[in-house]
Automatic annotation (TrEMBL), chain A:
It comes from the Archaea. InterPro entries: NADH_UbQ_OxRdtase_su1/FPO, NADH_UbQ_OxRdtase_su1_CS. GO terms for cellular component: membrane. It is a multi-pass membrane protein. GO terms for biological process: aerobic respiration. Keywords: Membrane, Transmembrane, Transmembrane helix. Its main location: membrane. This is NADH-quinone oxidoreductase subunit H.
UniProtKB/TrEMBL annotation, chain B:
The lineage of its organism: Archaea, Promethearchaeati, Candidatus Heimdallarchaeota, Candidatus Heimdallarchaeia (ex Rinke et al. 2021) (nom. nud.), Candidatus Heimdallarchaeales. This is NADH-quinone oxidoreductase subunit D. It is an enzyme of class 1 (oxidoreductase). GO terms for molecular function: NAD binding; NADH dehydrogenase (quinone) (non-electrogenic) activity; quinone binding. SUPFAM superfamilies: HydB/Nqo4-like. It holds the Pfam family Complex1_49kDa. It comes from the Archaea. Its EC number is 1.6.5.9. It comes from Candidatus Heimdallarchaeum aukensis.
């Protein structure tokens, strides 16, 4: 394990500061992009072109009064958003952003990332329950069932890169990915992308926080900085999910030129984010039963097909895959 | 018995509104079993202002701005019915030029109302872009109303005996501009919303109102036409100069959210057809009959009804003394109340996520609901 500059890696890049500022500027660029699609301008007054707007928003949330329902379980309500945020952080520690830019690298990083992701639904359910409000509870149930149901196709489709690269380490999967697995197995990439959207609760899967039905879903009763934590957790999950997609299906830091790995990674990530922003602007949301049906009837069979396709590829071109 | 007990323990009841981003000021007391709705109880009256009662303590002309407040979004049409009823009661002749101008303003107001509803409905399903784009289109109408009468939202264009201001060439050009612009925009809106497969999944076959049920609940306007009955009174009993124009409001038989959305988009096209026929034919002459400020009417009663963007609005005015300056009784019949009643019926058995989609498709205006 490469421990050079470990402190800088943990504290600055690709660690805490990078993710915090990543979240803030992801929010900013999301607001700007969606404003453009809507025909608006978006934030523009705080800082040059509104660049400090999200920081100002964070400051506002820090100093806001905390208001909770009488029936809320306070300890759980205070701790869960922070736990969610920290938990969302962990998968990012094993993502290889560049050849030397990673916090941790061991032989089963893929499994580690998904084990952490598997814990997220329970926290959203806990938060929904501890809020002591019926809207939050319904939102929590929706979030938990949606995320649990989409974990299955997510994990199954993540097996494809492991099979094709013959490794469970994200670093090895990146290095062995001479052709993007998106091209080799588009079915798996599609299933992974859709399941990732559902895990991130982004449109068209923003059912747990559907504004016109549930106010703000399981985040309804959060106020002040706890609301801020939950928003940060959401964006950290978004960074983590899209980074995993880049690593598993878009060749990670691979790209022409020497020592440009991080740049390529970021460009690919930006591409995914633009797609996510556009989807948020133009897509309506599904209904709960429709996406459950979609998961069981379409996504899980498709992910099984994709595993078959990967194994078939492995047997058809043994030299190509074993040569790496 | 035990089964019943288990069932009742899985029921959750809570209030959906009035402080809720998905409801305007009204509330639905919901009893849900998981995601299924078992019982709905509608509670209205949060924005009751007693418009009809207020009109009774004012002279006929003073009541004009109150009538507009039934619902701000289709303001010209709301006044249309009232001025027609007063004119019937007092026996006032309206010049033909004024009738044409009234129809033009009413159709513009109708288009404004329909495009605003469309944006709001798209936003309830989650398409925020369509909301922004539709409400940007609405600016065109507001600008035109600004030129027409000086105010953008509460237009106050109609008055007893005619209209308040004359028409001019600039307004004609602006209206033609709006027609050209909306023709393009409607294509974009249909592409973005109506062709979206998720939107189809959410609206087709959901919230079905059968023909019998629509008639039973006294549906009018687009909601009635979506259930297969031609109920547009611009055709059935033409008021003003609507019999001078050729137009056919669409009728569909499905009765679901999808049909109601399609009908409303088609209604915008119908309004454009009427405008295209009316604009070149505005007759010369007076735009207003001189009416004394303190208008007096003899004892009697009058009823007039108009087709709003969301249904039929009826105005009943009664005076009991000769030469009275104020009405003795004013009764307003709005479309939203009869449309809203049905939520207690059709929401039962649907999913929680269908609530905003179904009640949004009925185009209920809470201000018109309570008045």
């Amino acid at each position: 394990m490469n421990t050079d500059f470990l402190f800088i890696k943990v504290a600055v890049f690709p660690g805490v500061l990078f993710v915090l500022f990543g979240c803030l500027y992801l929010m900013y660029f999301e607001r700007k992009t969606i404003a453009r699609i809507h025909g608006r301008i978006g934030p523009q007054y705080v800082g040059y072109g509104g660049l400090l707007q999200t920081i100002a928003d964070l400051m506002k949330l820090m100093f806001k009064e905390w208001i909770f329902p009488k029936t809320a379980k306070k300890a759980a309500l205070f701790l869960t958003p922070i736990a969610l945020f920290l938990l969302a952080f962990l998968p990012l520690s094993v993502v290889p952003w560049g050849e030397n830019w990673y916090v941790a690298d061991f032989s089963v990083t893929l499994i580690f990332a998904f084990v952490v992701i598997a814990a997220i639904p329970f926290l959203s359910l806990l938060l929904g329950w501890s809020s002591g409000s019926k809207y939050s509870l319904i939102g929590g149930y929706r979030a938990a069932s949606q995320q649990i149901v989409f974990e299955v196709p997510l994990f199954l489709s993540a097996l494809t890169p492991a099979i094709l690269a013959n490794s469970l380490s994200l670093m090895d999967i990146t290095k062995n990915q001479k052709i993007w697995f998106l091209v080799l197995n588009p079915i798996a990439a599609f299933v992974f992308f859709v399941s990732m959207l559902a895990m991130m609760e982004r449109q068209p899967f923003d059912i747990p926080e559907a504004e016109s039905e549930l106010v703000f879903g399981w985040k309804t009763e959060l106020s002040g900085i706890f609301f801020g934590w939950s928003i940060f957790a959401g964006y950290t999950i978004m960074i983590g999910g899209s980074a995993l997609f880049v690593v598993l299906f878009m060749g990670g830091f691979n790209g022409p030129g020497n020592n440009l790995g991080v740049l390529w990674f970021m460009l690919k990530l930006a591409l995914i984010w633009l797609i996510l922003f556009a989807m948020r602007a133009v897509l309506p949301r599904y209904r709960m039963d429709q996406i459950l049906r979609m998961s069981w009837r379409l996504m899980i069979p498709l992910s099984l097909v994709s595993i078959g396709l990967s194994i078939g590829l492995l047997f058809a071109f043994p030299n190509f895959f074993r040569g790496v | 018995m035990t089964e019943n007990k288990e069932r009742s323990s899985s029921l959750v009841s809570f209030s959906y509104g009035p402080q809720h981003p998905g409801t305007h000021p009204y509330s639905l007391l919901l009893t849900v079993d998981g995601d299924r709705i078992e019982k709905v109880e509608a509670q209205i009256g949060y924005v009751h202002r007693g418009l009809a009662k207020q009109a009774e303590s004012r002279t006929f002309i003073q009541a004009l701005p109150i009538m507009e407040r039934s619902c701000f979004i289709d303001s010209v049409n709301h006044q249309f019915g009232y001025v027609m009823a007063v004119e019937k009661l007092a026996g006032i002749e309206v010049p033909e030029r004024a009738e044409y101008l009234r129809v033009i303003a009413a159709e513009l107001s109708r288009m404004n109302s329909l495009i605003s509803w469309f944006g709001g409905y798209a936003a309830e399903t989650g398409i925020n872009s369509a909301f922004m784009w539709a409400w940007k289109d609405r600016e065109m109408f507001l600008d035109l109303f600004g030129h027409l009468a000086g105010s953008r939202v509460s237009v106050m264009y109609l008055t007893i005996g005619g209209v308040r201001w004359d028409w001019n060439d600039k307004l004609t050009n602006l209206t033609w501009e709006i027609i050209d612009y909306m023709e393009e925009r409607l294509k974009i809106h249909k592409k973005l919303v109506m062709k979206n497969s998720i939107f189809k999944k959410r609206t087709k076959g959901v919230g079905v109102v059968s023909k019998e049920k629509a008639l039973e609940y006294a549906f009018t306007g687009p909601n009635l036409r979506a259930s297969g009955v031609q109920g547009d009174i611009r055709i059935l009993e033409p008021y003003s100069v609507y019999d001078h124009f050729k137009f056919t409001p669409k009728v569909m038989t499905e009765g679901d959210n999808w049909a109601r959305t399609m009908i409303r988009l088609h209604d915008i096209e119908t309004s454009m057809e009427i405008l295209k026929q009316a604009l070149p034919e505005i007759p010369e002459g007076e735009y207003k009959t001189k009416v004394p400020l303190k208008l007096r009417a003899n004892a009697g009663e009058a009823y007039a009804r108009v087709e709003l963007s969301r249904g039929v609005m009826g105005y009943y005015i009664r005076t009991v003394e000769d030469k009275s300056t104020k009405p003795y009784r004013v009764k307003i019949r709005g479309p939203s109340f009869s449309h809203f009643q049905i939520v207690e019926d059709i929401l039962v058995g649907t999913h929680m996520a269908d609530i905003p989609i179904i009640k949004g498709s009925l185009d209920v205006c809470p201000a018109d609901l309570d008045r």
